[in-house]
Amino acid sequence: MEGLVQLKRGDGTETPRRKLAPKPEWLKVRLPAGAGYTRVRDLLHGLNLHTVCEESRCPNVAECWGGGTATVMLMGDVCSRGCRFCHVANGELKPLDPEEPEHLAEAVAQLGLKYLVVTSVDRDELPDQGAGHFAAAIRALKARSPETKLEVLIPDFRGDRACLAEIVAAGPDVVAHNLETVRRLTPTVRDHRAGYDQSLGVLRALAELKPGLPTKSSLMLGLGETREELHEAFGDLRAAGVDVLTLGQYLQPSDWNLKVERFVPPSEFEQLREEALALGYLYVAAGPLVRSSYRAAEFFMEAMLHRDSAAPLPGEAR
Questions:
Q1: Are 17 and 77 contacting, i.e. CB atoms less than 8 angstroms apart?
Q2: H-type helices in the chain, by residue range?
């Protein structure tokens, strides 16, 4: 059982669990610390808010929280799905907190953020899959902090157009939905209720519901995909109207998740970035530590939302 270790369970039996692959030097980051990090952590915890930064064990938490930003996760910290790449808990689902939208709006007002990303777990058991709660949070944020640019990273809502329309009508500035991986690997990487074509359909629907609404998506690398499969995904996302793409290294968050098949070097990420930009994306962020909520991409989106139409932005298609 090479690559596995035996762990003692409570009943004394041993269960094999896969060792985490050692990381190359370019993926090593500092531990979170500092006044900025502590302020964001304490404020969010004090209001009973969850962040994808913590739940997904994001490697950029020190940089983002130290700079006063975080990606907040709505509807609890337990997901109705069990994607094999994800570290968010899957188990007993709790009722939604009706005060969560106002708590989030209060936290954002106190932090004084210029740009905020809000995401959520999946809640397939709810009649509207949580779309109404998500929309209420958007409205509360826009009412309390109208100057804050708001990006929402949404679930697929099983492709339900009414749910997507409710999100769009609430007025986010940017909507993101992640394709996550290439077509071939989707059944292995994602929950059976997700789907490659379903996610592309969500992104197309967003463009149809509000033409001109900026959209984003993200792909993880290192799960066994080929270069040709990545190019197919780049083209499919662009054809679905996606404006901004992020590419990052998949990191195994626990020994229960999918193992890393390959650590992609920074030079290859740069090549892929150039190849994706050639397809007409407004911006592509690519690198080992890039995530769907990545500060460089957020800075670009913020600038794009304020831009003078006569002044093109770096990497923008003409």
A1: no
A2: 35-46, 52-55, 61-66, 100-111, 131-144, 161-169, 186-189, 196-209, 227-239, 266-277, 295-306
**φ, ψ dihedrals at 200, nearest 5°:** -60, -35
Conformational region of residue 3, where left means phi above 0, alpha means psi within -120 to 50, and beta covers everything else: left
The answer to whether 249 and 220 have CB atoms below 8 angstroms apart is yes
Starting from the edge strand earliest in sequence, which strands make up the sheet with 149-153, in order? 50-51, 71-74, 115-120, 149-153, 174-176, 215-221, 244-249, 283-287
pLDDT, one tens digit per residue, over 5-21 is 333 333 444 444 455 56
CATH 3.40.50.720 fits 29-306, yes or no: no
Q: Which two tokens stand for residue 88?
A: 């968010």
Domain map (residue ranges) of the chain? 29-306
Does the structure show a pLDDT above 70 at 270?
yes
Structure tokens at 164: 């997507």
Between CA 221 and CA 258 the distance in angstroms is 12
Look at residue 287 in the predicted model and tell me its pLDDT. Answer: 93
pTM (two decimals): 0.80
Judging by DSSP bridges, how do beta strands 244-249 and 14-18 pair with one another? Answer: unpaired
Paired tokens of 224: 């066994």
Whole-number Å distance between alpha carbons of 246 and 258:
21
